[in-house]
Fold these 4 entries.
Entry 1:
Amino acid sequence: MFTGIIEHLGTVKELRRAEEGSRLVLDLGSMAKEVKPGESISVEGVCLTVTDIKGEQASFDVSQETLKRSMLGELKPGQKVNIERSLRVGDRMGGHFVQGHVDGTGIIQKKEEHPGQVTMWFTVPKELAENMIEKGSVAIDGISLTVVEVKEMPGGATAFSVALIPFTLANTTLGLKKVDDRVNIETDILGKWVKKLYGAMLKEKGGPAQGEITMEYLRSKGFE
């Protein structure tokens, strides 16, 4: 479990592709002293296990499923990546609950410059947009952010925006990204559970008609 508060920018040293997956090697700098094999680390929002540490370089095995769901397979040597160590019991919750289980990817559509901030727009598949609400949480490349707006685009696409302050741009990879770059997206876990449970309610016998939750229906489920 993570919070979406980026601790460090690592550097890609190597990405070796193989039929069964990939081997990713990162330079963690001084952070490597605090990392041990077997630990979970968020790399661009993807939860990976440290398999080996040599000096300041950490190695990770990346499965085919992870390569399919995320943009880790597109990483190049020298590229910067967002790093966050897993949440410890008693740590401050500075962002929101982030699992490191990427739901899919989005594409940067545009960047709007405003005094003191940049509004960045992303296009995403419909199934991801369905889990987003205005003022809700979203993790982009592992960064905990707040959704500003969600809207339908011409051609059936969906876009959402986030507001980025100078600190976020300077201390995460979003400050390095360009229009048309692909990013990892993890939608809020609470929203996914609500959607799943609500969908089950609609399918069950005696569920709320036309998606309406009435007082009678709540009482039938034990709510008073």
Entry 2:
Amino acid sequence: MKYALIGCGRIAINHLKAARANRFEVAALCDIVPGKAEALLARAEIPADAGIRTYTDYRQMLAVEQPELVSIATESGKHAKIALYCIEHGIHTIIEKPMAMSLSDADRIIAAAEKSGVTVSVCQQCRFNQAVQAMRRALEAGRFGTVSHCSVNVYWNRERSYYEHDAWRGTWKDDGGCLMNQCIHGADLLRWTLGTDIARVYGVTANHLHGYLETEDMGTAIVEFKNGTVGVLEGSGNVFRENLEETLYLFGSDGKVKLGGNSCNNVEVWDFADVQEGDETTRTLREPAPNVYGHGHMRLFQDVAEAIEQHRPPYVDVYAGRTALELILAIYKSQKTGQPVDLPLDSFSTEDMEGIFGVKTI
């Protein structure tokens, strides 16, 4: 499958490695900053004579290379525009999270994907973690009994150097704060676990330690589902020194599970009323990960390739991308209005938050 990558920043190495691991024909890389694509090839230890061409204009790259599949790893604010261009030109597309910065753009992507018939997936790759998959199987098998509540906590560190590296980070137009950038995986896991049918969201966000940014550096929300279950989402970039953990707790009448590690990659508690063969092994499941991104990109890229070949939806589709985005935007709107927000959310954008915490000064 002929593949091209658009955007060669921090997360791009995961896309490139995933494409190569899945034996895609990597034809070209593109970044608007001259030399950045070449630098990515060097980071990936790919020789200059490997035949991978580089571009600074994705439209030119697509016209010349005509890839079957692209992935988009630019700044978040450009995701929707580039995705729409790719989809409308009949190219299968993987969009790094978040899929867009507004619900209206997310809906445009969904409409374009439905019209064109191409496969579109969003990089909410934590779903592919072995620990998350084990919990999902138990949930689908009814082992939790009546589900009571779920809590997802993302306790990471993002220091000034992280934001100084790219000017778009920490802006409402192109990034959003820690909830949109770091915690949207947790939002996805919360909705995927408890269901998409949310009644209302109560959110509080703040900027305590990153006053040079426009956006929040911590936030928390109570999510009330229409069936009575309750979710809690908490995220922070304020953890001292280094990332601490991303955890998911799920409680039911007949079972409880805690997933931990840097990105919900380990099983830390596995306890059910109906003890089954294999529980002892699952209870000690640990999936070593080199960083918070884990191995999910590899599996997501594999799934997208299979979805294209089998003419089926990808495991993480555009609708999943939208539901995670909607939850984060609902939290933002609750902070802005000081009121709970009912879902479905008709329209909202990160840019509607401009001025909440001041202006960016770096």
Entry 3:
Amino acid sequence: MKFHKAFQLNGQLFRNSEELLAYSCQGSEELHSFLQQWLNDSIELKVMTSGSTGVPKEISLRKEHMKNSAKATGVFLKLGVKTKALLCLSPNYIAGKMMLVRALELGWDLDVVKESSSPLEQLDKVYDFVAMVPLQLSNSLQFLHRVKTLIVGGASVSPRLCQSLQGASCVVYATYGMTETTSHIALKRLNHGQSEKESQIYRVLPEVSISVDHRGCLVIDANKVSSERITTNDLVKIVGKDAFHWLGRHDTVVNSGGIKLIPEQIEIKLVEIISQRFFLAGLPDETLGEKLVLLIEDSRKSVLNGKEVKNFLKKANLSKFEYPKEIHFVKKFEETQTKKIKRKSTLEMI
């Protein structure tokens, strides 16, 4: 497998795959392992899904699809040859793998640092492009002048964090995608003059078509990055032919007494008054069928209900149907290896 002649890794140029592999032995085992797999003659690469909505599983991605995804991101964000980029994510997962593929295919100057919660803190270079998860972004706010364009994914960006980005000099995009779509297929800009309405809109990458099924869930046709049409469980509103507004997950909708509640939309209203991690979900109820409950990551063991709930959430602009029937405090949420909350298994804890 060839790579772009301008590609650099930690400032080093390489004449061939043998030189690159020999150099990568000095770095992390994860990096070396990925490059071994990428540079061999196989047309596919084995990757692990995140496990945020189920059990993590190994799937195969075509290397040609990964190359096409890299090129589409380069076109969308105008990141050409000699882009200075930083890899601060694990090469074990799709986001880290795709940073490497973009660099190899597009001829970037890529620095690789050990994964940490504050990757920019010890660096003094200015980068054209960086990818992070929300925790890293939250811990890097004071260092964002060192980045020109940043994408954030792996978990949702809270309204509070989004507000903190408005004064940043770099342009920040949230990503939409999954391992099965070879990383992201859509981006939404979170700052730099975006209105509140515009900041909710994902715009798809080149050669990606979108529609909705009978449930209102997103359907993705992107034969450049996936061999099959992908039907998701994400409730969306299509905005034009190449954009959509993400509403929530179909499999988390709570049907409470005939009223369908989308937890993710209600959570947006609560983020300003709850500082800890939290989420809303449904539990069986004899009268309502399902009752809406709020889980907060907190060491206390109490459970609030009735008037206690309304007093706790009185500052939130909730409709009468949006008030949870109970608040449960959970010492530690269940997580995937990439730090996404596992809602189903956390809910089972109560």
Entry 4:
Amino acid sequence: MATSRRFFLSLLVLMVSACTKQAHTAPYINFSKVKSDSEPEATADPYIPPTRIPDQPIYTPTPSAPKLLPPLRTEDITYIVQWGDTLKSIAYQNNLLPQQIIDANEIANPSLIYTGQALLLPAPDIKDTGPGFKLIPDSELVHSPYTVRFHTVSYINNQSGYLKDYQEEVNGESQTGSEIVQRISEDYSINPRLLIALIEYQSQWVTTRSDKDNPYPLNHKEAGYEGLYRQLAWAADELNRGYYLWKVRGIGTWTMTDGINVPINATINAGSAGVQHLFSRLLPYKNWLSAVSEEGFFSTYSSLFGYPFDYTFSPLVPEGLTQPQLQLPFEDGVTWLFSGGPHGGWDTGSAWAALDFAPIPGDVGCSSSNAWVVAVADGIIVRSDHGAVVQSLDGDPYSQTGWSILYMHIETRDRVKTGSRIKAGDRIGHPSCEGGISTGTHLHIARRYNGEWIPADQDISFIMDGWVSQGLGFAYQGIMTRGEQVIRAEDTNTDYNHIQR
């Protein structure tokens, strides 16, 4: 892990005084004493991990060993448009802004690009390497174990700002500001403290009532992203994108809103990379430098929650971690379709943690299905709403600790209840299109460990009943193998994507 508790570097300019609003210190959690049928406690026992000595000056963690990053592109290239490409996706994959591609190719209608079209991609404008200052530990980006005793709704409701009174209709349901923060945190597996600090940094909605009529509280001013829910969903996805791309060495520069590219400092950690990436999507170069400095977002976070590295939980994913034994998520003798290979656990920015399965016939859109999704292992249902069912596999009622499984697009009808203790093979509910975006009835299933999305195409193989997932380099494309048997993901009913227990 990037963050180490054993090392210290330079004295921060920022000092936490006695009047600092440290509303919640890092909680001590003795997981061996957590009762499996208990609810999260409302108290927070003071706990100061060994990142610093109480009442002593705060030191930043030392830089991590440099990470090998992709080489920087310094010349113009020609790109051939692939199926599913958009100008935005091409631009972001090549460290450009869409307008730079439009200008270089004199494109009259940006919506009318076509598969096979050749596009000139100009060389990016590259500045000096970005700062190496660590903003947060990895465990403060993901919905990690140190969030178990943090109560999002209570915290926000105890503040004086507009956020506690905010209300918005989300998919036909009225939700408060605190409920929206909690929902985004659970959906994307992003730390609620991080989301709250971002809202405060961008709009001051947590502590003041200023700018309350702003439809873009995170200042992502793009049509279709009005309101707190869509702003936070976009931000959570971008935080995940920076975090998980950094972990797999999939990105080498941040592209600012003014088109300037900044090579990433190779010694930051994944959590800091996620925050740096998000602000690169929001700010021009000079403003970005300020936001990712000690006096920027870090200062805002510290004023709300104290020193972020007091919440270090490391390692989130221990070296040598192996997956528990899992079965396929459908009943014995019933044939399903392997309809989607490795892709985002939630939205497009998270790790490719998910696989898709569809009941036969599998090509009739969002039709009602009487097929059953079943549990892949023993555990406790810790969430059942908005099309999502989350199961904790380690005996406690928390999705943030140990292994958890997300079953997505589960119909409301017959859906298992929160708090249910279930065995492998017990019924979860029916596949559907509920929750998220779906063009056909199916099950989306993904794994997390300590809140981190676990890819289905990397070192910790996604194995169910001996079937092993493999990715083919593109989202949704993949195969599953069991001995000499091989099936390939396809979103229709074919001869080569049938699977059963």
